[in-house]
Amino acid sequence: MTEQKADAILHDHNHDGIDRRGFLKCMAWAGTGLLCVMQGGVLKSFAMAPGMKWGKKEKTGELAFAQISDSHIGFSKAANPDVGATLQAAVDRLNALPIVPEFVLHTGDITHLSKTAEFDGAQQLLKGLRADTVHYVPGEHDVLNDDGRQYLERFGKGSKGAGWYSFDQKGVHFIGLVNVVNLKAGGLGLLGHDQLEWMEDDLKHLSSSTPIVVFAHIPLWSVYPEWGWGTDDGAQALSYLRKFGSVSVLNGHIHQVMQKVEGNVTFHTAMSTAFPQPAPGSAPSPGPMAVPAEKLRGLLGITSAKFVRGSHALAVVDSSLDAQAASGETILDANSLASVGG
Amino acid sequence: MKRTITSAAVLLLCVALFPIGGSGASARPADEPAKAVVTIDNFSFGHPITVPVGTTVVWTNTDDVPHNVVSKDKLFKSPILDTGEHFEFTFKTAGTFDYYCSIHPRMTGQVVVK
User: Fold this and answer.
1) What is the complex's ipTM, to 2 decimals?
2) Do B108 and A77 touch (CB under 8 A)?
3) CATH number for the domain that contains residue A156
4) CA nearest B103 in A: which residue?
5) Does residue A258 belong to any structural domain of this protein?
6) Hey, what CATH topology would domain B33-113 get?
7) Is A335 inside a domain boundary?
8) CA distance A2 to A336
9) How far is CA A18 from the centre of its chain?
10) Using one digit for the tens of pLDDT, what is the confidence trace for B5-40?
């Protein structure tokens, strides 16, 4: 077994368990398949070489799932004239993962204009997933015109309010939040009082050792407010999570990978399967970014995630739609993670 | 003198029947108000505009994503505007009218009507 250890970083100069230099490396632009693992509060990053895979044997107490986002079915402009084809490519890639995810999280903007045919098209394509289930939260593009009625009819079973809910899988507690309705003029994303109350109550009886994964469309942390990339009452939600040892927040909306570690919380945003958007402040606006056709699939992608019981870490791997699988495997499993960087 | 008075009377009558300016039949069709255009581009409504009472403001979306136009005081709300689509609203009273895009609420705009 060959270990690819492009950069295992361990910098804890402030002695507060937050690996700032490591997290800067993890703020990677899309498409490079960067693995960031937080173990015991310290972030380690590994550049994934082609062919690196998860350990093939799914060990007990492991939970493998995936995240996709921003499929925008119905969009057809210069940035991507065929979002159906790229969503299909994402489905194919998810199905080719060495460990099939138990379920997929879709962090919203399933459709582009909330049209019936667009919802139908997205659901049809996602039926091809080997994973058992898709858990959705809506994006702002899914709740146009009808206050999210059609979204709720299709995906809101068992949810409350505008579509928030929680579920447990292998001891990990998942919370799906909606921060794209009742938005205020001049504001960012918004969770609202009812949802926050529900969330506080939902978490109340969980032990602090329960790993938590929160997923919502718009980033719950302030990525770039000038472009609406944040949630006005996100801090309130995060305050309910302080007691937990391992919290992961998975978002979409910005169509690029961004990661941040703050105390016990790891934040991660996923690539879109439809079109890329510019890096914060690098363009006049956050709209669809047209790139040369051969570069598009390198900027779209999926996220696979694995939780190993007993570790603090939710290990997250982003891979673009054109990442090549090479012959000759390198297994990156729990053992090799433990041995790298001590 | 009688002729002058008569002429004056005729002139006054003409002015009464065909007001100069405004929506007089001689200037343009009575029911076509003045228009002002707001181009929605790069997630922006542009600077606030000032228009006279009675103006119809036309918003046109030139972005690659949909936007809408929603008045803060619930005076008007456009349907979703995809690229190339437009929405019109006629401002019949004076005032300052703030609006925003409810899909991307960071986008705000203003129409000042005088």
Assistant:
1) 0.77
2) no
3) 3.60.21.10
4) A140
5) yes
6) Immunoglobulin-like (2.60.40)
7) no
8) 10
9) 21
10) 555 455 555 444 544 444 444 455 556 668 999 999
Of B82, B83, B100, the CB nearest to A185: B100
Q: Is B88 on the interface with A (CB under 8 A)?
A: no
Strands (E), A212-296: 212-215, 247-251, 258-262, 265-269
Establish if B97 touches chain A: CB-CB under 8 angstroms: no
**Domains in chain A, number:** 1
Please state which of the ranges A115-119, A143-147, A294-298, B19-23 shows the lowest mean pLDDT.
B19-23
Q: Who has greater pLDDT, A4 or A76?
A: A76
Using a CB-CB cut-off of 8 Å, the residues of chain B touching A228 are: 104-106
E strands, B1-114, in order: 35-40, 49-51, 56-61, 70-71, 86-90, 95-100, 108-113
SS3 A342: coil
Using a CB-CB distance cutoff of 8 angstroms, which residues of chain B are in contact with residue A140? Answer: 103-104
Phi-psi region of A168 (alpha: psi -120 to 50; beta: other; left: phi over 0): beta
Measured in angstroms, the CA of B89 and the nearest CA of chain A are apart by: 19
| Structural domain containing residue A87 | 65-305
pLDDT computed for residue B7 by the predictor = 52
pLDDT digits (tens, 9 = 90+) for A152-189: 999 999 999 999 999 999 999 999 999 999 999 999 99
Domain annotation covers residue A290: yes
Q: What is the pLDDT of residues A189-204, one digit of tens each?
A: 999 999 999 999 999 9
Dihedral sign from CA coordinates of A270, A111, B102, B49: positive
